[in-house]
């Protein structure tokens, strides 16, 4: 009985094996020879011909850029080809192939190699040399393999191509040039009767079409596709649609319609699994091939716009390189997820692939998380790919990328680097017939001009009827551009029905870790530090500016006053999403003051209902608490239907004078003494000794208990200077008042009382069309440890980059960050800070102070930021002095422009015509010791 039972079990196992093996054979089996990405590599044998670690056999991680593994030499695209080492790399790798693969067609697939690749299997050529770095290529190596035994792969990679047009298109472009097998390598085994690839066109109305490319099709009878929405319902209720067609040719067209189709948009990226099955004459499965697709319809309507699923879209986009400082162009699925999430966190809905097709998992993530994509055939200003290699690479790009619903347009090169002979080939090869752009050019229905000045947005140029879509604008060199100027540009672009949006240059700084320089970062001067983010995705100030300006929930500007009724005018700038599907939460905030441990009291967040359809304007009405005026700020946070933060808006509830008046310390001293010291006036009260210049009234020095607080040489009135007309200093009872009058009627008044506070009131009329206006003091930068303040922060602002900094209680330690240069610490310490209410300036030697602001709309300027090494037009002039209290500040430029939008203009002041008298700076200094530990 026991023997019979064992025999029965053996038969069951055998039957299971016989059933499973054919099924497995019907699937495409993938075996990686390399790792899967930057976070998963395999060591191969490697020989580099020149540069670092050259002239010897050693090991290299695959995939990788060989420079980042310490081989060869670094090149930026602007380096002349004749000056480059033009090193080559020879790779060797041994691998096993199962004996049963004899029944399969086996291909070796390279997702990308820079730049010319010669592939040999067991000493025999796998096929022609592949030229072009960013494209997936493959060889059928079925006849070259030793099945059941060990095989050797050998790849010779030339960093620079033997084809001159490839070098011009790829290797002289404005980005870092790397060498090596930088994307994964793997084997594909599938039945000899197989589905080679599919090209899908799935429309928003449910119409489905696919061209299915077959191998050995005469042995097949039927092709069917099963379409299932993702994710599959957890209850197992699969809404599957099956379409089928007889096989009569090497390319089978399958058509049909999906009822109640769920469409793809970047706001709701619904997708379907499409399982294609090739059947023989008995209905047995020969091969199964799976794609993930999305149903959506793209229309480019002449002299109108881009429509997706019948809705006109505005592309809020960014240009992105595949890049990390340590790995160069080698990426991973985790990096793609991180980057797409970061882009969406900035409220962007589009990304341009600059200037090459990306790693394919990046497109998968754009599909699944939701971004519009411009996919690009490489080319950069120079002569493009020649017709032969260009067509081959175009075929490879479209064959790999055609089915991604995220891709809505193709780019043929960049800035004059496109081959016009290939335009018709895009149409021939793409089943979806997506339109083709020539970035930087007027072509077809589009004007994609780059780095336009603000006046260009008047749309009075010679392409009024073109759809305006700048594929690069707001160049983000160092801290300029990107968010700086975007508010002006975007409002004009938003209001222009013929503008389809635009793409900021660019996502992140391309600073490479140089292995020949102890991993120090190199941006090739000012060629590559032009990201919204730093090289390690540090959030620069423009990140938050873009996030606010491109928020799909738009708040009309308003100030909160005692008459505030809780009403905000808002607009729904989503394309497809109603605000009823979003979440809005309201909270009221109270901040601790100076001299106290940082504490933020926040009321419980309460939801508020908002119901506006896409494109609608309306109101958001708060349920106001009875004691709302006791708070310092109002916060409203919006989240999208997936819980992703859209933005948090914060409004101060009280004016600075109200906050400062309530916070001023009330300590009283016994007396106050005024002395005439010959060239200066001295005031002694509490533990303070204050010295004023007798001729100018400027502050000479302050000492507390004998410790000098090095604030001096102020107030220096900025914007309209004149000789001093009169200085008067006198003591009346317990108050010392020093008044200074200038010949142009500007004046300031010092007041020192027994409360130990130094009061300053400045009344002045600045010049019209001024860069900056206000007052300045000197304070040695070497003496500052940090600052804590109530106002807009934590990032600095410019006149043309006011949004993104939010009202709150902030703190940061001193740093000397030069945005975009190595060793950056964010947020930057130095520069302009808006809406200042009070600030604690922390000194290194217990020599800091606190300043309270009673005037509205005052900018606190903390020192002068160090200019970058190659500033281009991002260089800025700052006021004299070190610490300033300003009514107006200046704008920052970009690499190419000084930013010509209205916000970048000089500040106007028409004395005696518009303004009621002079501007007023009213501040109070408290020189009691600042606790650096709070």
From TrEMBL:
GO terms for biological process: lactose catabolic process. One of its GO terms (molecular function) is beta-galactosidase activity. Keywords: Calcium, Glycosidase, Hydrolase, Signal. Its EC number is 3.2.1.23. It catalyses: Hydrolysis of terminal non-reducing beta-D-galactose residues in beta-D-galactosides. Residues 1-25 form the signal peptide. Pfam families: Bgal_small_N, Glyco_hydro_2, Glyco_hydro_2_C, Glyco_hydro_2_N. Residues 737-855 form the Beta galactosidase small chain/ domain. Its cofactor is Ca(2+). Residues 299-518 form the Glycoside hydrolase family 2 catalytic domain. Residues 58-191 form the Glycosyl hydrolases family 2 sugar binding domain. SUPFAM superfamilies: (Trans)glycosidases, beta-Galactosidase/glucuronidase domain, Galactose mutarotase-like, Galactose-binding domain-like. Monomer. PANTHER family: BETA-GALACTOSIDASE. This is beta-galactosidase. It comes from Niabella ginsenosidivorans. The lineage of its organism: Bacteria, Pseudomonadati, Bacteroidota, Chitinophagia, Chitinophagales.
